[in-house]
């Protein structure tokens, strides 16, 4: 196993954990650009990127990577969302955040299938 196949996902997971477990009082109190439900857009984006970055390492280990990658990303979404309130007392588990996470990883799966897999872009992911 080469470390070069896993460093991107490791760095991204660390960034995500920092953002997800950051105390609520350190989050911006004013909505960014006055966009309603901006936090859901952030959750969608974080898990979109997570799922895209997971495809390459999972693809190295199984031919069923279109099944296992979203499943693994969903398991991480559930785990991170469910322990959020245990790690940071000012944060809480939110079903709508989990739905945004799931939408992000499903969109990433479709995006990977049609725009990344087997193309030059796959080497960047």
List the helices and strands and how they pair.
Blueprint: H1 7-21, H2 38-61, H3 65-87, H4 95-116
Helix pairs in contact: 1-2, 2-3, 2-4, 3-4
Attribute tags:
single chain, 4 helices, 0% strand
Explain how this protein is built:
This protein starts with 6 loop residues before the first helix and ends in a 9-residue tail after the last helix. The chain has helices at 7-21, 38-61, 65-87, 95-116. With 125 residues, the chain is mainly alpha-helical. It is globular. The model has no long low-confidence stretch (mean pLDDT 89).
Distance between the termini: 17 Å
Which structural class should the secondary elements be placed in?
mainly alpha
Can you count the helices?
4
Q: How big a fraction of the residues is strand?
A: under 5%
Mean pLDDT: 89
- Rg over CA atoms: 15 Å
Q: H/E element string?
A: HHHH
| Count of beta strands | 0
The residue fraction in helices comes out at 55-70%
- Uncertain stretches: none
Approximate shape: globular
Biggest sheet details: none
């Amino acid at each position: 196993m080469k470390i070069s196949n896993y460093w991107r996902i490791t760095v991204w997971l660390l960034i995500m954990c920092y953002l997800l477990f950051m105390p609520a009082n350190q989050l911006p109190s004013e909505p960014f650009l006055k966009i309603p439900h901006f936090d859901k857009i952030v959750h969608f984006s974080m898990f979109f990127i997570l799922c895209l970055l997971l495809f390459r390492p999972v693809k190295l280990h199984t031919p069923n990577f279109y099944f296992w990658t979203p499943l693994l990303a969903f398991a991480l979404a559930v785990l991170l969302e469910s322990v959020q309130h245990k790690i940071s007392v000012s944060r809480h588990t939110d079903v709508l955040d989990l739905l945004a996470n799931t939408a992000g990883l499903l969109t990433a799966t479709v995006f990977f299938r049609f725009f990344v897999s087997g193309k030059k872009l796959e080497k960047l992911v």
